[in-house]
Amino acid sequence: MKSKTYFLLLFGCLGAFMFCHLSQPANWVDVINDHLQRYPKMLPDDIYKLVYQGMLGPGHLGTERLRIDNYLKQELSSVEPDADADLEEVISPDSLYIRINLKKMKAMGLSEEMLVNAIIRSVKKAPHTKSEFIRTWRKLVQMVESDKIRIDKQNFSEFNTYIIENNYPVVHHSEIYKQTYTPSYRVVLRSVWESCRESK
After folding, report:
1. Res 154 pLDDT > 80
2. pLDDT level of residue 22 (50, 70, 90 thresholds)
3. d(CA 136, CA 133)
4. Closest CA relative to residue 160, chosen from 47, 74, 80, 81
5. How far apart are the C-alpha atoms of 52 and 49, rounded to whole Å?
6. Nearest 5°: phi and psi at 8?
7. Where exactly are the structural domains of the chain?
8. What are phi and psi for residue 92, nearest 5 degrees?
9. Helices (H), strands (E): how many in the chain?
């Protein structure tokens, strides 16, 4: 009886693992194509930003609490709450990083302090380096050239030249993306975000 119970428990855990594993994008091509399907107005800038955030997270924000807090309060005061939006959006194949939708957060009345803490902790625990990001990006350039990522090759090539010449900088979303989708979010490590929510 005990062995049967153990088998069922093991089978259930294995099934849960397989479900979670299969429900996540398999690689960066899948992640990008999934976002292109949901946000068809994406330009090379937006793809680059997605990969940059998905590997380097909110590192460019630093860890100065007052600045992060003030910037967050300013943006939250200007966005309309949206109860129908998803709170979290996966932005990496390993689901390490997610975007937290500020419109949904405002609708839910979630704590600003909690998100600030999650941002700072995410910066401190960043698992990837910029050199790793550059290597990944170069592979994705090849994926575009081989049509595994469907986006205008000429525009992409021109954008890629720009970021190489500028040492792979932080970029903003394209104007058309901002006008069409009005993005308002913060990037955090999923594990840190979940830990911060559980502690509240």
Report:
1. yes
2. very low
3. 5
4. 47
5. 5
6. -65, -40
7. 26-198
8. -150, 150
9. 10, 3
Contact 45, 160 (CB under 8 A): no
Instruction: Tell which residue, 85, 88, 92, 86, has the closest CA to residue 49.
Output: 92
Higher-confidence residue: 64 or 8? 64
Give the least confident one: 23-32, 63-72, 120-129: 23-32
Across the chain, mean pLDDT equals: 88
Side-chain half-sphere CA neighbours of 22 within 13 A: 6
Q: Which tokens belong to 74? A: 């300013």
Q: Check pLDDT > 80 for residue 179.
A: yes
Token digits of residue 93: 């194949």
Taking the C-alpha atoms of residue 141 and residue 154, their distance in angstroms, rounded to an integer, is 12
Mean pLDDT of 115-144: 94
Count of Cβ atoms closer than 10 Å to residue 182 Cβ: 11
CB atoms inside a 10 Å sphere around CB 195 = 13
Give me the helices (H) in 23-167, please: 28-38, 44-56, 65-78, 102-108, 112-124, 130-145, 153-165
Contact assessment for residue 113 and residue 103, using Cβ atoms and an 8 Å cutoff: no
What amino acid is encoded at 151 in this protein? Answer: I
Residue 90 belongs to what H/E stretch? strand 88-90
